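Quick illustration, no need to memorize.
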Amino acid sequence: MAKYDDLNMPLISVVAFISIVLTFVSIVAAQIIYYAYERNEIYTKRTSLPDADADNQINQQIGRLNSYGWIDRQNKVLAIPIDQAMSLVLKEQGPST
């Protein structure tokens, strides 16, 4: 008659050892993948620096908004600073009710 309360210790030991090894390998593999993606992302960010171009473009636009200049000389269209243009528009519209 078989005893149902006997444990198969060699099988349990083998399964436990395999589980520990697989868990360790999974953790190491996840770290390797993470650091590879991180290295790739840092490299991508360092090699493509659009910020300098964007800053230059913003400075040019601010300069255009705050200066006088010709838009169309033939039709005599002149650009004026934005603050001055806004105050002129407010004066033309008169007091709001």
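The chain has three helices and two strands.
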